C-alpha cells in the first residue's frame, strides 16, 4: 500500500494510474475498526497485483478528507481510468464481503477511452479553493478543451448535413 501525504499526491496518483483500478483506503491510526481491518486489506491487496492500493491517514489529511466528504472510517473509494470514481463505501471486518465484492466487480482488467479522470472536477475545485492543490494546477485544466471538441473541430460536417437535407427533400418530392 502506498501512503498518500498530500492532496496533490492523491490527485497525481489517480491520474497516473491509467486504466488500473485504484483503491483508496481512508483510515485513522486510532480507529479500532481501521486497525482490525488493515491486515485483511493487505492480504487482499496481494491477491490483486494489478490494482493500486493507496492509503490516506485521516488525522494527517483531515482538511482534504472533509472536503471529499469522508466522515466515517474506515472508508474506501475505488477509481478506474476515464470512469473516475466507480464506488465508495465504509466497511468493517464484519462487512468485509462488501470490499471483496467491489474488488470482484471492478477489478477486472479493461481499457477505457480517454485519460484517467481521478477526482471529480467539483472535488478538485474545492481542494484548490482551500489551498490543498494549486489553483493553476494543470490537473484542474488538463487539456485546452475536451476530446469531443477536438474531434468536432477537426472535421467539417456542414457539407454532409446539407447533402442529407437536399437528399431528403428529393426523396420527399419523389414520394409525392
Low-confidence runs of at least 5 consecutive residues: 142-176
Instruction: Tell me the structural class.
Output: alpha/beta
Specify the biggest β-sheet.
5 strands, mixed
Strand content: 15-25%
Spatial strand order of the main sheet: 1-3-2-4-5
Q: Note the quaternary state here.
A: single chain
Radius of gyration: 22 Å
Order of helices and strands: EHEHEHEEHHHH
Describe the structure.
The protein is an alpha/beta fold and about 180 residues long. The protein is built from seven helices and five strands. A five-stranded mixed beta sheet has the order 1-3-2-4-5, sandwiched between helices. It is globular. The model is unreliable at about 140-175 (pLDDT under 50).
Task: Set out the fold topology.
Blueprint: E1 2-4, H1 7-16, E2 21-27, H2 32-47, E3 52-57, H3 62-67, E4 75-80, E5 84-90, H4 96-106, H5 121-129, H6 147-154, H7 158-175
Parallel strand pairs: 1-3, 2-3
Antiparallel strand pairs: 2-4, 4-5
List keywords for this structure.
single chain; alpha/beta; five-stranded mixed beta sheet
In short:
The chain has 176 residues and is an alpha/beta fold. The chain is 44% helix and 16% strand. The protein contains seven helices and five strands, in the order βαβαβαββαααα.
Amino acid at each position: 500500500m502506498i501512503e498518500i501525504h498530500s492532496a496533490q499526491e492523491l490527485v497525481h496518483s489517480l491520474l497516473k494510474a491509467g486504466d488500473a483500478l485504484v483503491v483508496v483506503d481512508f483510515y485513522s491510526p486510532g480507529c479500532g475498526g481501521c486497525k482490525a481491518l488493515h491486515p485483511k486489506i493487505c492480504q487482499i491487496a496481494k491477491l490483486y497485483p494489478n490494482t493500486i492500493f493507496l492509503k490516506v491517514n485521516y488525522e494527517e489529511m483531515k482538511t482534504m478528507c472533509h472536503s471529499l466528504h469522508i466522515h466515517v472510517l474506515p472508508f474506501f473509494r475505488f477509481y478506474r481510468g476515464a470512469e473516475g470514481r466507480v464506488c465508495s463505501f465504509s466497511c468493517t471486518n464484519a462487512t468485509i464481503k462488501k470490499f471483496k465484492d467491489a474488488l470482484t466487480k471492478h477489478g477486472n482488467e479493461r481499457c477505457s477511452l480517454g485519460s484517467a479522470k481521478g477526482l471529480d472536477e467539483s472535488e478538485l475545485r474545492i481542494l484548490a479553493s482551500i489551498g490543498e492543490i494549486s489553483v493553476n494546477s494543470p490537473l484542474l485544466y488538463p487539456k485546452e478543451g475536451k476530446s469531443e471538441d477536438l474531434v468536432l473541430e477537426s472535421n467539417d460536417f456542414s457539407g454532409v448535413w446539407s447533402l442529407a437535407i437536399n437528399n431528403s427533400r428529393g426523396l420527399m418530392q419523389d414520394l409525392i
